Amino acid sequence: MQIIKALITWSARVAGGWFIGVLPGKQHQGTGSLLLRQLLADGQRPVYLETSMVDNVNWYTKRGFEVYQTLQFGHGNLYLLRTSTARA
Fold first, then answer.
1. pTM metric for this prediction
2. Starting at the edge strand that comes first in sequence, how are the strands of the sheet with 48-51 ordered?
3. φ and ψ at 19, to 5 degrees?
4. Percentage of the chain with pLDDT > 90?
5. Fewer beta carbons within 10 Å, N or C terminal of the chain?
6. 61 with 30: CB under 8 angstroms?
């Protein structure tokens, strides 16, 4: 929990965006969901993110994000997602 609080404190100071992730050995234990909930807690700003991994798309959509655009590249797709509060 201390690591999550430290990351959130650090992330709040970073202009432009965040990179979040969970070490492979710590995945599937709820850490990523907890981290995302904490980052979205204020709910006052829309959140946009991108991923190239389909598994991540499924993970984020289960947590309230929607894909609003898919960019196709020769090596694969880039999925652009946003929270529902980001809708125009």
1. 0.70
2. 48-51, 76-83, 65-73
3. -120, 120
4. 24
5. C
6. no
